[in-house]
Amino acid sequence: MKQRFVLTALILLGVAFIAFFQSWESGRVLETSTNGQQDGAGCEDRSVEQAKELAQLMKTELSMYTSVTKDVFGKSSEGGEQTDYLLGDERKFIKQTFYAETGKSEISYYLESEKVFYFEKINTEYVVPLSQDLRGEIKNVERNEFYIGNNQNLCFWYSDGQVQLNTKAARETVEYFVSDL
Fold first, then answer.
1. What's residue 47's pLDDT?
2. Distance CA 31, CA 48 (A)
3. Tens digit of pLDDT for each residue in 38-59?
4. DSSP code of residue 63
5. Which residue of 5, 87, 144, 164 has the smallest Cβ count within 10 Å?
6. From CA 154, how far away is CA 117, in angstroms rounded?
């Protein structure tokens, strides 16, 4: 009788583990349990898919916007630039590029009512520093996507398409990027 109970418990535990792992792989567990919000406040306004679709639509409509470009100093060793895209007086898209000897970072912010709802940061690393080879042959590219709630807090983020834990460090990084616009 005791062996049957142990065997049944092990089977149920195995089934639960498999179900949890399948949920984890699809991102549902991480997206619902690690959004960094106590109650998910601010993250209900749109899904990840809706945010991505809206960002893509805005990117295709850039020709409708007026643009203003300025130099940005103090955020990288070689400086950078920022281009604001406006529809009327409202910023809708911001593109920042920061240069360094060993690579560059490109950050694209998508805004609605002057609030960021999505941004992506693409880090490009060169094989050798530009001082050794001006061609800038690419060694590695990392793409991070951040989904921001209407309260400007991080809801979800992905690195190279894989959902990531919403840690305190990740939330602080997003706060740094968003607050400096």
1. 87
2. 10
3. 345 578 778 899 999 999 999 9
4. G
5. 5
6. 9
Rounded-to-integer distance, Cα 151 and Cα 148, Å: 8
Distances from the Cα of 107 to the Cαs of 9, 12, 98, 124, in angstroms? 50, 46, 9, 11
Model confidence, pTM = 0.74
Long-range own/partner contacts, residues 164-172 (CB < 8 A, 24 or more apart)? 164/30, 165/30, 165/34, 166/30, 166/34, 166/35, 166/36, 170/36, 171/36
Structure tokens at 24: 């984890």
* Count of alpha carbons within 13 angstroms of residue 72, beta-carbon side: 21
User: What order of strands is seen across the sheet that includes strand 154-159?
Assistant: 66-72, 80-87, 90-100, 103-112, 115-126, 138-148, 154-159, 162-163
148, 173 Cβ separation under 8 angstroms: no
9-40 pLDDT, tens per residue?
334 344 333 434 344 444 433 333 344 443 45
Q: What's the CA gap between 121 and 151, in Å, rounded? A: 20
Rounded to an integer, what is the distance from CA 25 to the centroid of its chain?
Answer: 18
Give percent above pLDDT 70 in the chain: 77
